[in-house]
Amino acid sequence: MIEHYVQAFATVLLPQNILAMCLGGLWGxxxxxxxxxxxxxxxxxxxxxxxxxxxxTAFCMLVAAYCGGITGGSITSILFGIPGEPSSxxxxxxxxxxxxxxxxxxxxxxxxxxxxxxxxFSVIVMMVATPLIAAFALRFGPPEFFALTVxxxxxxxxxxxKSMVKGFLSCFFGLFLATVGTDGITGGERFTFDTTILLGGxxxxxxxxxxxxISEIFIEAEEPFKEFKGVxxxxxxxxxxxxxxxxxxxxxNLIRSPIIGTVIGALPGAGATIAAFLAYGTTARMSKxxxxxxxxxxxxLMSSECANNASTGGSMTILLSLGLPGSNTTAMMIAAFMxxxxxxxxLLLSARPDIVYGIFVAMxxxxxxLLVLTAFxxxxxxxxxxxxxxxxxxxxxxxxxxxxxxxxxxSTDDLYLMFIFGVIGYAMMKFEIPVAPAILALVLGDMAExxxxxxxxxxxxxxxxxxxxxxxxxxxxxxxxxxxxPLIKKPKILRGG
Length: 497
Fold this sequence. Notes:
single chain; mainly alpha; two-stranded antiparallel sheet; 21 helices; 71% helix
Protein backbone atom coordinates (compact mmCIF):
# COMPACT_ATOMS: atom_id res chain seq x y z
CA MET A 1 0.00 0.00 0.00
CA ILE A 2 2.82 2.41 0.89
CA GLU A 3 4.47 1.92 -2.47
CA HIS A 4 1.15 2.78 -4.16
CA TYR A 5 0.98 6.08 -2.27
CA VAL A 6 4.62 6.89 -3.04
CA GLN A 7 4.00 6.28 -6.73
CA ALA A 8 0.75 8.28 -6.60
CA PHE A 9 2.45 11.31 -5.02
CA ALA A 10 5.25 11.15 -7.60
CA THR A 11 2.70 11.05 -10.43
CA VAL A 12 0.27 13.68 -9.13
CA LEU A 13 3.07 16.17 -8.45
CA LEU A 14 4.24 16.16 -12.06
CA PRO A 15 4.05 19.67 -13.61
CA GLN A 16 1.18 18.84 -15.99
CA ASN A 17 -0.90 17.38 -13.17
CA ILE A 18 -0.24 20.34 -10.87
CA LEU A 19 -1.32 22.66 -13.70
CA ALA A 20 -4.43 20.53 -14.24
CA MET A 21 -5.35 20.78 -10.55
CA CYS A 22 -4.84 24.56 -10.51
CA LEU A 23 -6.97 25.09 -13.63
CA GLY A 24 -9.62 22.65 -12.43
CA GLY A 25 -9.72 24.22 -8.97
CA LEU A 26 -10.05 27.75 -10.39
CA TRP A 27 -12.82 26.67 -12.74
CA GLY A 28 -14.58 24.90 -9.86
CA UNK A 29 -14.43 28.05 -7.75
CA UNK A 30 -16.08 30.04 -10.55
CA UNK A 31 -18.67 27.35 -11.33
CA UNK A 32 -19.61 27.00 -7.67
CA UNK A 33 -19.72 30.75 -7.07
CA UNK A 34 -21.84 31.75 -10.06
CA UNK A 35 -25.58 31.21 -9.53
CA UNK A 36 -27.08 28.73 -11.92
CA UNK A 37 -23.74 27.10 -12.80
CA UNK A 38 -23.50 24.18 -10.40
CA UNK A 39 -20.52 21.98 -9.65
CA UNK A 40 -22.02 19.13 -11.64
CA UNK A 41 -22.50 21.45 -14.63
CA UNK A 42 -18.89 22.55 -14.24
CA UNK A 43 -17.75 18.92 -14.34
CA UNK A 44 -19.82 18.30 -17.48
CA UNK A 45 -18.24 21.29 -19.23
CA UNK A 46 -14.77 20.04 -18.29
CA UNK A 47 -15.33 16.54 -19.63
CA UNK A 48 -14.79 17.63 -23.22
CA UNK A 49 -11.31 18.87 -22.29
CA UNK A 50 -10.25 15.52 -20.82
CA UNK A 51 -10.57 13.35 -23.94
CA UNK A 52 -6.94 13.87 -24.98
CA UNK A 53 -5.50 13.86 -21.45
CA UNK A 54 -4.09 10.87 -19.64
CA UNK A 55 -6.49 9.34 -17.11
CA UNK A 56 -4.59 10.56 -14.06
CA THR A 57 -4.26 14.11 -15.44
CA ALA A 58 -7.95 14.15 -16.29
CA PHE A 59 -8.95 13.08 -12.80
CA CYS A 60 -6.56 15.58 -11.21
CA MET A 61 -8.47 18.30 -13.06
CA LEU A 62 -11.92 16.86 -12.33
CA VAL A 63 -11.50 16.21 -8.59
CA ALA A 64 -9.97 19.68 -8.17
CA ALA A 65 -13.01 21.16 -9.91
CA TYR A 66 -15.28 19.06 -7.67
CA CYS A 67 -13.62 20.29 -4.48
CA GLY A 68 -13.41 23.85 -5.84
CA GLY A 69 -17.10 23.90 -6.76
CA ILE A 70 -18.20 22.99 -3.25
CA THR A 71 -15.82 25.61 -1.84
CA GLY A 72 -16.69 28.36 -4.34
CA GLY A 73 -20.40 28.24 -3.61
CA SER A 74 -19.73 29.76 -0.21
CA ILE A 75 -17.92 32.87 -1.49
CA THR A 76 -20.97 34.45 -3.11
CA SER A 77 -23.10 33.09 -0.26
CA ILE A 78 -21.16 35.15 2.25
CA LEU A 79 -20.60 38.28 0.19
CA PHE A 80 -23.80 38.57 -1.81
CA GLY A 81 -26.32 36.32 -0.09
CA ILE A 82 -26.57 34.15 -3.22
CA PRO A 83 -25.81 30.44 -2.71
CA GLY A 84 -23.78 29.25 -5.65
CA GLU A 85 -24.46 25.68 -4.50
CA PRO A 86 -27.50 24.21 -2.67
CA SER A 87 -25.18 23.09 0.13
CA SER A 88 -24.27 26.74 0.76
CA UNK A 89 -27.73 27.76 1.97
CA UNK A 90 -26.72 27.53 5.70
CA UNK A 91 -23.69 29.64 4.79
CA UNK A 92 -26.02 32.33 3.44
CA UNK A 93 -27.91 32.34 6.74
CA UNK A 94 -24.87 32.82 8.97
CA UNK A 95 -22.05 33.98 6.71
CA UNK A 96 -24.03 36.69 4.94
CA UNK A 97 -25.31 37.92 8.29
CA UNK A 98 -21.69 38.40 9.39
CA UNK A 99 -20.94 40.18 6.10
CA UNK A 100 -23.81 42.60 6.61
CA UNK A 101 -22.35 43.38 10.04
CA UNK A 102 -19.08 44.42 8.36
CA UNK A 103 -17.17 41.18 8.99
CA UNK A 104 -17.01 39.83 5.45
CA UNK A 105 -13.27 39.12 5.58
CA UNK A 106 -13.62 37.39 8.96
CA UNK A 107 -16.43 35.17 7.65
CA UNK A 108 -14.42 34.35 4.53
CA UNK A 109 -11.42 33.25 6.57
CA UNK A 110 -13.58 31.05 8.80
CA UNK A 111 -15.29 29.49 5.78
CA UNK A 112 -11.99 28.88 3.96
CA UNK A 113 -10.17 27.27 6.89
CA UNK A 114 -13.15 25.08 7.79
CA UNK A 115 -13.78 24.12 4.16
CA UNK A 116 -10.22 22.97 3.61
CA UNK A 117 -10.14 21.23 6.99
CA UNK A 118 -13.36 19.35 6.19
CA UNK A 119 -12.09 18.38 2.76
CA UNK A 120 -8.73 17.09 4.05
CA PHE A 121 -10.47 15.26 6.92
CA SER A 122 -12.74 13.40 4.50
CA VAL A 123 -9.83 12.47 2.23
CA ILE A 124 -7.91 10.96 5.15
CA VAL A 125 -11.00 9.03 6.20
CA MET A 126 -11.47 7.91 2.61
CA MET A 127 -7.92 6.59 2.52
CA VAL A 128 -8.09 4.56 5.72
CA ALA A 129 -11.75 3.61 6.09
CA THR A 130 -13.16 3.10 2.59
CA PRO A 131 -14.30 -0.51 3.16
CA LEU A 132 -16.04 0.37 6.47
CA ILE A 133 -17.95 3.35 5.06
CA ALA A 134 -18.98 1.43 1.96
CA ALA A 135 -20.28 -1.49 4.04
CA PHE A 136 -22.30 0.86 6.24
CA ALA A 137 -23.83 2.59 3.22
CA LEU A 138 -25.01 -0.74 1.85
CA ARG A 139 -27.28 -1.16 4.90
CA PHE A 140 -29.42 1.83 3.84
CA GLY A 141 -32.64 0.91 2.08
CA PRO A 142 -35.79 2.97 1.34
CA PRO A 143 -36.93 3.06 5.03
CA GLU A 144 -33.54 4.36 6.14
CA PHE A 145 -33.47 7.00 3.42
CA PHE A 146 -36.96 8.16 4.39
CA ALA A 147 -35.92 8.45 8.03
CA LEU A 148 -32.80 10.34 6.96
CA THR A 149 -34.85 12.88 5.01
CA VAL A 150 -37.25 13.31 7.95
CA UNK A 151 -34.24 14.00 10.16
CA UNK A 152 -33.06 16.53 7.62
CA UNK A 153 -36.48 18.21 7.54
CA UNK A 154 -36.43 18.44 11.34
CA UNK A 155 -33.78 21.14 10.91
CA UNK A 156 -36.78 23.39 10.21
CA UNK A 157 -37.01 23.87 13.97
CA UNK A 158 -33.62 25.57 13.84
CA UNK A 159 -34.44 27.68 10.77
CA UNK A 160 -37.87 28.96 11.81
CA UNK A 161 -36.69 32.16 13.46
CA LYS A 162 -39.18 33.64 15.90
CA SER A 163 -42.16 31.48 14.91
CA MET A 164 -42.07 27.74 14.30
CA VAL A 165 -45.56 27.94 12.77
CA LYS A 166 -44.22 30.15 9.97
CA GLY A 167 -41.24 27.83 9.63
CA PHE A 168 -43.46 24.81 9.09
CA LEU A 169 -45.71 26.75 6.71
CA SER A 170 -42.62 27.47 4.64
CA CYS A 171 -41.60 23.81 4.89
CA PHE A 172 -45.02 22.57 3.70
CA PHE A 173 -44.84 25.00 0.79
CA GLY A 174 -41.51 23.50 -0.22
CA LEU A 175 -42.90 19.96 0.10
CA PHE A 176 -45.78 20.92 -2.17
CA LEU A 177 -43.35 22.29 -4.75
CA ALA A 178 -41.49 18.97 -4.64
CA THR A 179 -44.66 17.13 -5.75
CA VAL A 180 -45.11 19.24 -8.89
CA GLY A 181 -44.33 17.48 -12.15
CA THR A 182 -44.31 13.86 -13.25
CA ASP A 183 -44.81 11.14 -10.64
CA GLY A 184 -41.50 9.33 -10.16
CA ILE A 185 -43.19 5.91 -9.83
CA THR A 186 -46.44 5.97 -11.85
CA GLY A 187 -45.44 8.57 -14.44
CA GLY A 188 -48.68 10.52 -13.95
CA GLU A 189 -48.88 14.32 -14.06
CA ARG A 190 -49.31 16.19 -10.78
CA PHE A 191 -50.16 19.87 -10.32
CA THR A 192 -48.96 20.76 -13.81
CA PHE A 193 -52.14 22.77 -14.61
CA ASP A 194 -52.16 21.37 -18.15
CA THR A 195 -48.92 23.10 -19.05
CA THR A 196 -45.68 21.59 -20.29
CA ILE A 197 -43.62 24.05 -18.24
CA LEU A 198 -44.11 22.03 -15.05
CA LEU A 199 -43.94 18.52 -16.51
CA GLY A 200 -40.32 18.09 -15.45
CA GLY A 201 -41.00 19.47 -11.99
CA UNK A 202 -39.63 22.67 -10.50
CA UNK A 203 -35.90 23.05 -10.87
CA UNK A 204 -34.23 23.56 -7.54
CA UNK A 205 -31.77 26.06 -9.03
CA UNK A 206 -34.57 28.15 -10.54
CA UNK A 207 -36.55 28.19 -7.29
CA UNK A 208 -33.45 28.88 -5.21
CA UNK A 209 -32.31 31.79 -7.37
CA UNK A 210 -35.81 33.26 -7.35
CA UNK A 211 -36.53 32.87 -3.64
CA UNK A 212 -33.12 34.03 -2.44
CA UNK A 213 -31.55 36.26 -5.09
CA ILE A 214 -34.38 37.87 -7.08
CA SER A 215 -36.45 38.51 -3.95
CA GLU A 216 -33.44 40.17 -2.33
CA ILE A 217 -33.07 42.44 -5.36
CA PHE A 218 -36.76 43.38 -5.07
CA ILE A 219 -36.31 44.19 -1.39
CA GLU A 220 -33.25 46.31 -2.00
CA ALA A 221 -34.93 48.04 -4.95
CA GLU A 222 -37.21 49.77 -2.45
CA GLU A 223 -34.14 51.86 -1.64
CA PRO A 224 -32.70 52.44 -5.10
CA PHE A 225 -29.69 54.48 -4.03
CA LYS A 226 -28.61 52.19 -1.21
CA GLU A 227 -25.05 50.94 -1.24
CA PHE A 228 -24.42 47.22 -1.00
CA LYS A 229 -25.62 46.16 2.43
CA GLY A 230 -22.75 47.42 4.46
CA VAL A 231 -20.34 44.84 3.07
CA UNK A 232 -18.60 47.67 1.27
CA UNK A 233 -17.06 48.51 4.61
CA UNK A 234 -14.81 45.67 5.62
CA UNK A 235 -11.43 45.27 7.20
CA UNK A 236 -8.50 43.76 5.34
CA UNK A 237 -8.01 40.03 5.23
CA UNK A 238 -4.94 40.35 7.42
CA UNK A 239 -6.77 42.38 10.09
CA UNK A 240 -9.71 39.99 10.25
CA UNK A 241 -7.73 36.76 10.53
CA UNK A 242 -9.62 34.65 13.13
CA UNK A 243 -7.63 33.81 16.27
CA UNK A 244 -6.48 30.28 17.00
CA UNK A 245 -8.56 30.34 20.19
CA UNK A 246 -11.74 30.32 18.08
CA UNK A 247 -10.89 26.95 16.60
CA UNK A 248 -9.70 25.56 19.93
CA UNK A 249 -13.04 26.49 21.51
CA UNK A 250 -14.89 24.76 18.66
CA UNK A 251 -12.88 21.53 18.70
CA UNK A 252 -15.98 19.36 19.20
CA ASN A 253 -17.72 21.08 16.29
CA LEU A 254 -14.64 20.63 14.10
CA ILE A 255 -14.66 16.90 14.79
CA ARG A 256 -18.41 16.28 14.69
CA SER A 257 -19.26 18.19 11.51
CA PRO A 258 -16.66 16.58 9.19
CA ILE A 259 -17.73 13.16 10.46
CA ILE A 260 -21.36 13.98 9.61
CA GLY A 261 -20.32 15.27 6.20
CA THR A 262 -18.19 12.22 5.39
CA VAL A 263 -20.81 9.68 6.48
CA ILE A 264 -23.72 11.46 4.73
CA GLY A 265 -21.59 11.96 1.62
CA ALA A 266 -21.02 8.20 1.50
CA LEU A 267 -24.76 7.54 1.27
CA PRO A 268 -25.89 7.27 -2.37
CA GLY A 269 -28.10 10.20 -3.27
CA ALA A 270 -27.59 12.13 -0.03
CA GLY A 271 -24.83 14.58 -0.97
CA ALA A 272 -23.42 17.81 0.41
CA THR A 273 -26.75 19.59 0.89
CA ILE A 274 -28.13 17.11 3.41
CA ALA A 275 -24.73 16.95 5.10
CA ALA A 276 -24.55 20.72 5.49
CA PHE A 277 -28.09 21.05 6.85
CA LEU A 278 -27.70 18.12 9.27
CA ALA A 279 -24.40 19.42 10.64
CA TYR A 280 -25.81 22.94 10.88
CA GLY A 281 -28.97 21.75 12.65
CA THR A 282 -26.98 19.56 15.04
CA THR A 283 -24.74 22.47 15.99
CA ALA A 284 -27.75 24.75 16.47
CA ARG A 285 -29.40 22.25 18.81
CA MET A 286 -26.20 21.69 20.81
CA SER A 287 -25.18 25.35 20.98
CA LYS A 288 -25.11 27.19 24.31
CA UNK A 289 -26.36 30.28 22.46
CA UNK A 290 -29.00 29.05 19.97
CA UNK A 291 -30.54 32.51 19.78
CA UNK A 292 -27.51 33.67 17.75
CA UNK A 293 -28.32 31.32 14.89
CA UNK A 294 -29.65 33.19 11.90
CA UNK A 295 -27.85 36.34 13.07
CA UNK A 296 -24.24 35.47 12.26
CA UNK A 297 -23.40 32.43 14.41
CA UNK A 298 -19.77 31.54 13.70
CA UNK A 299 -20.20 27.97 14.95
CA UNK A 300 -23.09 27.46 12.51
CA LEU A 301 -20.92 28.72 9.65
CA MET A 302 -18.08 26.42 10.71
CA SER A 303 -20.28 23.34 10.92
CA SER A 304 -21.92 23.75 7.50
CA GLU A 305 -18.60 24.44 5.76
CA CYS A 306 -16.84 21.51 7.40
CA ALA A 307 -19.68 19.17 6.51
CA ASN A 308 -20.35 20.15 2.89
CA ASN A 309 -16.67 19.89 1.96
CA ALA A 310 -16.24 16.65 3.90
CA SER A 311 -19.04 15.13 1.82
CA THR A 312 -16.75 15.12 -1.23
CA GLY A 313 -14.55 12.39 0.27
CA GLY A 314 -17.58 10.34 1.30
CA SER A 315 -19.15 10.61 -2.16
CA MET A 316 -15.94 9.57 -3.88
CA THR A 317 -15.59 6.67 -1.45
CA ILE A 318 -18.91 5.15 -2.47
CA LEU A 319 -18.15 5.81 -6.15
CA LEU A 320 -14.73 4.16 -6.12
CA SER A 321 -15.67 1.21 -3.92
CA LEU A 322 -19.17 0.38 -5.17
CA GLY A 323 -19.52 2.27 -8.43
CA LEU A 324 -22.51 4.16 -7.02
CA PRO A 325 -22.81 7.96 -7.36
CA GLY A 326 -23.06 9.55 -3.94
CA SER A 327 -24.14 12.87 -5.48
CA ASN A 328 -25.07 14.49 -8.78
CA THR A 329 -21.46 15.50 -9.29
CA THR A 330 -20.04 12.02 -8.77
CA ALA A 331 -22.70 10.77 -11.18
CA MET A 332 -21.04 13.01 -13.75
CA MET A 333 -17.71 11.51 -12.73
CA ILE A 334 -18.90 8.09 -13.94
CA ALA A 335 -18.91 9.52 -17.47
CA ALA A 336 -15.27 10.51 -17.01
CA PHE A 337 -14.38 6.94 -16.05
CA MET A 338 -16.21 5.62 -19.10
CA UNK A 339 -14.42 8.08 -21.39
CA UNK A 340 -11.10 6.62 -20.28
CA UNK A 341 -12.22 3.00 -20.43
CA UNK A 342 -12.54 2.49 -16.67
CA UNK A 343 -15.36 1.04 -14.57
CA UNK A 344 -15.65 2.37 -11.02
CA UNK A 345 -16.42 -0.32 -8.46
CA UNK A 346 -14.90 -3.08 -6.36
CA LEU A 347 -12.64 -4.33 -9.18
CA LEU A 348 -11.09 -0.94 -9.90
CA LEU A 349 -8.76 -1.04 -6.89
CA SER A 350 -7.20 -4.32 -7.98
CA ALA A 351 -7.24 -3.57 -11.71
CA ARG A 352 -5.98 0.05 -11.64
CA PRO A 353 -4.57 0.89 -8.20
CA ASP A 354 -2.63 3.76 -9.78
CA ILE A 355 -5.90 5.52 -10.66
CA VAL A 356 -7.53 4.96 -7.26
CA TYR A 357 -4.54 6.02 -5.19
CA GLY A 358 -3.89 8.84 -7.62
CA ILE A 359 -7.41 10.16 -6.99
CA PHE A 360 -6.81 9.94 -3.23
CA VAL A 361 -3.65 12.01 -3.51
CA ALA A 362 -5.18 14.40 -6.06
CA MET A 363 -8.07 15.21 -3.72
CA UNK A 364 -5.64 15.80 -0.86
CA UNK A 365 -3.41 18.09 -2.92
CA UNK A 366 -6.42 19.84 -4.51
CA UNK A 367 -7.64 20.95 -1.09
CA UNK A 368 -4.21 22.35 -0.29
CA UNK A 369 -4.03 24.17 -3.64
CA LEU A 370 -7.54 25.52 -3.09
CA LEU A 371 -6.40 27.07 0.17
CA VAL A 372 -3.87 29.15 -1.76
CA LEU A 373 -6.09 29.80 -4.81
CA THR A 374 -9.06 30.92 -2.74
CA ALA A 375 -7.04 33.04 -0.31
CA PHE A 376 -4.97 34.87 -2.95
CA UNK A 377 -7.30 34.87 -5.97
CA UNK A 378 -10.90 33.93 -5.23
CA UNK A 379 -11.56 35.94 -2.07
CA UNK A 380 -9.72 39.04 -3.25
CA UNK A 381 -11.51 39.00 -6.60
CA UNK A 382 -14.96 38.86 -5.06
CA UNK A 383 -14.08 41.32 -2.30
CA UNK A 384 -13.22 43.88 -4.94
CA UNK A 385 -16.67 43.40 -6.42
CA UNK A 386 -18.09 44.66 -3.13
CA UNK A 387 -16.91 48.16 -3.95
CA UNK A 388 -19.64 48.47 -6.58
CA UNK A 389 -22.73 50.42 -5.58
CA UNK A 390 -25.75 48.19 -5.19
CA UNK A 391 -27.56 49.91 -8.07
CA UNK A 392 -24.87 48.53 -10.40
CA UNK A 393 -24.28 45.34 -8.52
CA UNK A 394 -27.96 44.34 -8.51
CA UNK A 395 -28.00 44.65 -12.31
CA UNK A 396 -24.99 42.33 -12.53
CA UNK A 397 -26.64 39.86 -10.18
CA UNK A 398 -29.84 40.00 -12.22
CA UNK A 399 -27.91 39.29 -15.43
CA UNK A 400 -26.12 36.33 -13.82
CA UNK A 401 -29.41 34.98 -12.50
CA UNK A 402 -31.08 35.27 -15.91
CA UNK A 403 -28.13 33.68 -17.74
CA UNK A 404 -27.85 30.91 -15.15
CA UNK A 405 -31.57 30.10 -15.15
CA UNK A 406 -31.80 30.18 -18.95
CA UNK A 407 -28.66 28.06 -19.32
CA UNK A 408 -30.14 25.16 -17.35
CA UNK A 409 -32.32 24.00 -20.25
CA UNK A 410 -32.13 26.88 -22.75
CA SER A 411 -35.78 27.63 -22.07
CA THR A 412 -37.54 30.88 -21.28
CA ASP A 413 -39.95 28.89 -19.13
CA ASP A 414 -37.29 28.74 -16.41
CA LEU A 415 -37.03 32.52 -16.53
CA TYR A 416 -40.76 32.88 -15.96
CA LEU A 417 -40.58 30.51 -13.00
CA MET A 418 -37.56 32.31 -11.58
CA PHE A 419 -39.35 35.66 -11.51
CA ILE A 420 -42.52 34.06 -10.09
CA PHE A 421 -40.46 32.64 -7.25
CA GLY A 422 -38.82 36.02 -6.85
CA VAL A 423 -42.24 37.56 -6.20
CA ILE A 424 -43.12 34.71 -3.82
CA GLY A 425 -39.83 35.16 -1.95
CA TYR A 426 -40.46 38.90 -1.73
CA ALA A 427 -43.88 38.28 -0.18
CA MET A 428 -42.43 35.74 2.26
CA MET A 429 -39.82 38.25 3.41
CA LYS A 430 -42.46 40.94 3.85
CA PHE A 431 -44.56 38.62 6.03
CA GLU A 432 -41.43 37.42 7.90
CA ILE A 433 -41.85 33.84 6.69
CA PRO A 434 -38.41 32.18 6.53
CA VAL A 435 -37.34 31.08 3.07
CA ALA A 436 -34.73 28.48 4.12
CA PRO A 437 -37.28 25.80 5.25
CA ALA A 438 -39.01 25.96 1.84
CA ILE A 439 -35.70 25.46 0.06
CA LEU A 440 -34.75 22.60 2.36
CA ALA A 441 -38.13 20.90 1.81
CA LEU A 442 -37.85 21.32 -1.96
CA VAL A 443 -34.43 19.63 -1.88
CA LEU A 444 -35.52 16.73 0.32
CA GLY A 445 -39.18 16.42 -0.63
CA ASP A 446 -38.80 14.30 -3.76
CA MET A 447 -36.30 11.98 -2.07
CA ALA A 448 -38.57 11.62 0.97
CA GLU A 449 -41.64 10.81 -1.14
CA UNK A 450 -39.90 8.21 -3.29
CA UNK A 451 -38.28 6.56 -0.26
CA UNK A 452 -41.63 6.41 1.58
CA UNK A 453 -43.53 4.96 -1.38
CA UNK A 454 -40.84 2.39 -2.10
CA UNK A 455 -40.85 1.39 1.57
CA UNK A 456 -44.62 0.86 1.48
CA UNK A 457 -44.34 -1.12 -1.75
CA UNK A 458 -41.77 -3.41 -0.10
CA UNK A 459 -44.02 -3.95 2.93
CA UNK A 460 -47.29 -4.29 0.96
CA UNK A 461 -48.58 -1.07 2.52
CA UNK A 462 -47.53 -1.78 6.11
CA UNK A 463 -46.12 1.46 7.64
CA UNK A 464 -44.45 -0.52 10.44
CA UNK A 465 -41.50 -1.07 8.10
CA UNK A 466 -40.44 2.50 8.89
CA UNK A 467 -39.87 1.70 12.56
CA UNK A 468 -38.92 -1.95 12.33
CA UNK A 469 -35.30 -1.36 11.38
CA UNK A 470 -32.72 -0.15 13.92
CA UNK A 471 -31.17 2.57 11.76
CA UNK A 472 -34.49 4.05 10.63
CA UNK A 473 -36.01 4.14 14.12
CA UNK A 474 -32.91 5.83 15.54
CA UNK A 475 -33.05 8.50 12.82
CA UNK A 476 -36.80 9.05 13.32
CA UNK A 477 -36.35 9.38 17.10
CA UNK A 478 -33.64 11.94 16.43
CA UNK A 479 -36.07 13.92 14.26
CA UNK A 480 -38.78 13.84 16.96
CA UNK A 481 -36.33 15.02 19.61
CA UNK A 482 -34.98 17.80 17.41
CA UNK A 483 -38.49 19.18 16.84
CA UNK A 484 -39.73 18.71 20.41
CA UNK A 485 -36.67 20.11 22.17
CA PRO A 486 -37.09 23.76 21.05
CA LEU A 487 -40.79 23.61 21.98
CA ILE A 488 -39.97 22.38 25.47
CA LYS A 489 -37.09 24.78 25.95
CA LYS A 490 -38.84 27.84 24.45
CA PRO A 491 -42.61 27.24 24.20
CA LYS A 492 -43.22 30.73 22.74
CA ILE A 493 -41.33 29.83 19.56
CA LEU A 494 -44.39 27.89 18.36
CA ARG A 495 -46.39 31.07 17.89
CA GLY A 496 -43.60 33.59 17.79
CA GLY A 497 -41.98 35.81 20.35
